[in-house]
Amino acid sequence: MLRGFNAAGAGMMANQRHQDSLSNNMSNALTPGFKQDRSTFRAFPEMLIQNVESRDVPTENGLQLPFQNTVGNINSGVYMQEDVPLQTQGDIRETGLSTDLAIQNGDMPDENGSVFFEIQNEEGDVRYTRNGNFTVDGEGFLTTNQGHYVLDEDGDTIQTGTDQFEVTEDGEVVSPFDNTLIGMAYHENTNDFVKEGDNLFANEGDVAAVEARGAGGVGFQIQQNHLEESNVDEQQVMADMTRAHRMFDMNQQVVKTFDQSMELAANQIGRLR
């Protein structure tokens, strides 16, 4: 019976984490460039149940031999393993702002490959994003709305001096201050990318991202005055949230049933009369 408690409790925890992930997706449905998370589940290892006993052997000394009878397998529950960002292309929306840039994916040589803007985080490390909702700070540098610098192809910051600049389809910034190419990174397997906050991704894989313009077979276009919208499917997320709530409730009912059975066993079955 305690195994049933554990399995049902594990199911409640897994669905609670799944609900939290879905809530985060829904809250970022309007965040430019946001990539929704997909929750992956796994079962705990199965356990083999055996009945261990001894059998008498009809001998003069009354010999007993151990005997094992296989009962079967039992599963000890399920858990949510991880959240994996879904890197599909979001819809492109026109905003009319010169600092808004959208990446339109073209041909990709790898099924899980994609192109990203290169960003410098607060620690000075290179991170990646699809959110082109940029701005120009007080010193004339192109940054994200969170204040992270947008990098060029050499890993340097980009100074436009003003928000009156143009960006070509291949990502060249043409401004009164200077002309430079925005750093565009391509990675062959975006499953190696992990969310780090502020709509930034860190590469935790063994393969480094490369400059997209020099990667063979990689096609993309930069659309100025546009933004890539979130790829969250709100209707699907609502359906998944309803399903997760029902699964949580079902496991909760199982826990209540086991609790009532144990109460009955403790208070009535073992009662002395």
Automatic annotation (TrEMBL):
Coiled-coil regions, chain positions: none
Domain Flagellar hook protein FlgE/F/G-like D1: 112-173
Domain Flagellar basal body rod protein N-terminal: 6-35
Entry keyword NAD: no
Subcellular location(s) of the protein: Bacterial flagellum basal body
Superkingdom to which the source organism belongs: Bacteria
Protein name, UniProt field: Flagellar basal-body rod protein FlgG
Native species: Alkalibacillus salilacus
